[in-house]
């Protein structure tokens, strides 16, 4: 079944040029004069084997009277309603215009997937426009040239992902929960803390070899599993010791397989021994997981034989002082051997996975940002001038990453970025996952005028 794609944007941004590029022939008239396209033009196309039904639309020009512009806009609306995905083009040479922003607000309200294309990006002069486009709230802009074919591979990848998700959502034979992509869940920790025992307990099957000896598991073993209607790839891994103690070639290979499994997972459960929670090696593993952008859950095993108060006090102190980059990491006390609190552990996994995938709507995000700047504005920069932060946008999820744009970001102290990160985490319930905030400089469009 072909993916229905509407090509939208204000007049003269290159929609018909892209339509012809995807169609592989000159189907639509292309002219420098804006407003040439008035009707919806539909044709079949194929992009790297992906079947498309592409719709060329009139440029967006708002009108509330019964005139040709209003009727053109109604045609564009119909195209968006009929489409599976919209390709939103803007002119990277001209930069973001008020019509772009107004149109983006309308498109976001439709709830349709959108691919944002920064068209006419034949050179590097358009970089500022690409960064500025994040404020449209339509995700990551693809540097593109409809005329020269730049960015076609990136467009294909974006459309392919959307097509795959639509197949999952539209399949009505079973519930959508069953058909969603499996959660990649890795169980990691030091040797002999009970990782394989935990995997067997979760699977309710003696799938993994266990024993009192350290290092029984040597490879990363993936088990396909379903829990509460959600598909999971559950990965048992070899124990990780301090690197300085590893001299056996087989153990080095086991450690490499474990790290690869952890860094490719979406959620990582770090299993701790209740008698030695978050020692130096545990902290190293946890930091590496967070640095790789994975969601983290801590499982304190052997709780049935633990000194509980002492263990909890030590755990909370270590979390507070040594893992500050992801405040609010879920911690669950379990007994893998006695299968205690496993439901609680899986609820924590699902919750942190949902946070890791979270995308914050543009309006509440920017309202939060405005309140933050009002209540606690940025300090003075290196030049003794107040640093001006203009706006924020979420660039991606998995994990959530944000761009803040400023005309003079130099000298913004790390302490203020930490303040923003912590407040963002608290306001939008993003505990236990890494958050990326990058401050980007917005260019001065008049900087080169006199050169």
Descriptive account of the structure:
With 451 residues, the chain is an alpha/beta fold. Helices cover 36% and strands 21% of the residues. The protein has 13 helices and 15 strands. It has helices spanning 15-23, 68-82, 98-110, 127-132, 152-170, 176-179, 195-203, 249-264, 280-291, 308-322, 342-356, 362-375, 414-427; strands spanning 3-8, 41-47, 50-56, 85-91, 114-119, 142-143, 183-189, 221-227, 230-236, 267-273, 295-301, 331-333, 389-396, 401-406, 436-441. The strands form 3 sheets. Strands 2-3-1-4-5-6 form a 6-stranded mixed β-sheet, with helices on both faces. Strands 8-9-7-10-11-12 form a 6-stranded mixed β-sheet, sandwiched between helices. Strands 13-14-15 form a 3-stranded mixed β-sheet. A hairpin with a 2-residue loop joins strand 2 (41-47) and strand 3 (50-56). The longest helix has 19 residues, at 152-170. The radius of gyration is 26 Å and the shape is globular. The termini are far apart. Residues 28-39, 171-179, 207-219 and 444-451 have low confidence and may be disordered.
Summarize the structure.
The chain has helices at 15-23, 68-82, 98-110, 127-132, 152-170, 176-179, 195-203, 249-264, 280-291, 308-322, 342-356, 362-375, 414-427; strands spanning 3-8, 41-47, 50-56, 85-91, 114-119, 142-143, 183-189, 221-227, 230-236, 267-273, 295-301, 331-333, 389-396, 401-406, 436-441. It has 451 residues and is an alpha/beta fold.
């Amino acid at each position: 079944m072909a993916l229905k794609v509407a090509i939208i944007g204000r007049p003269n941004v290159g929609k018909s040029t892209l339509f012809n590029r995807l169609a592989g022939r000159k189907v639509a008239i292309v002219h420098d004069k804006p407003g040439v396209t008035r009707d919806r033009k539909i044709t079949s196309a194929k992009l790297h084997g992906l079947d498309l039904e592409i719709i060329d639309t009139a440029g967006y020009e708002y009108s509330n009277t019964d005139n040709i512009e209003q009727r053109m806009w109604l045609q564009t609306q119909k195209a968006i309603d009929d489409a599976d995905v919209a390709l939103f083009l803007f002119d990277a040479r001209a930069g973001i215009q008020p019509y772009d922003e107004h149109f983006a607000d309308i498109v976001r309200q439709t709830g349709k997937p959108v691919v944002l294309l920064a068209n006419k990006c034949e050179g590097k002069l358009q970089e500022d426009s690409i960064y500025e486009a994040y404020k449209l709230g339509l995700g990551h802009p693809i540097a593109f040239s409809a005329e020269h074919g730049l960015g076609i591979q990136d467009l294909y990848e974006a459309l392919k992902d959307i097509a795959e998700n639509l197949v999952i959502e539209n399949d009505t034979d079973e519930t959508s929960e069953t058909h969603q992509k499996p959660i990649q869940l890795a169980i990691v920790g030091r040797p002999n803390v009970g990782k394989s025992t935990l995997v067997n307990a979760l699977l309710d099957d003696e799938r993994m070899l266990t024993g009192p000896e350290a290092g029984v598991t040597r490879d990363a073993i993936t088990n396909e599993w379903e829990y509460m209607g959600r598909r999971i790839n559950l990965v048992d891994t070899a124990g990780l010791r301090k690197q300085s103690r590893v001299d056996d070639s087989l153990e080095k290979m086991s450690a490499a397989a474990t790290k690869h499994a952890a860094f490719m997972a979406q959620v990582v459960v770090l299993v701790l021994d209740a008698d030695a929670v978050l020692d130096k090696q545990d902290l190293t593993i946890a930091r590496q997981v967070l640095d790789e952008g994975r969601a983290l859950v801590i499982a304190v095993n052997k709780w049935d034989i633990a000194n509980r108060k002492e263990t909890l006090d030590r755990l909370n102190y270590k979390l507070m002082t040594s893992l500050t980059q992801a405040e609010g990491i879920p911690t669950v006390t379990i007994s893998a051997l006695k299968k205690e609190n496993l439901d609680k552990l899986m609820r924590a996994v699902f919750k942190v996975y949902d946070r890791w995938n979270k995308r914050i709507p543009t309006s509440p995000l920017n309202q939060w940002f405005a309140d933050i700047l009002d209540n606690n504005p940025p300090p003075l920069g290196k030049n003794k001038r107040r640093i001006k932060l203009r706006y924020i946008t979420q660039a991606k999820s998995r994990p959530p990453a944000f761009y803040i744009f400023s005309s003079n970001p130099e000298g913004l102290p790390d302490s203020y970025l930490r303040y923003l990160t912590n407040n963002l985490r608290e306001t939008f319930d993003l505990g236990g996952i890494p958050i990326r905030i990058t401050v980007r400089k917005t260019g001065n469009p008049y900087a080169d005028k006199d050169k």
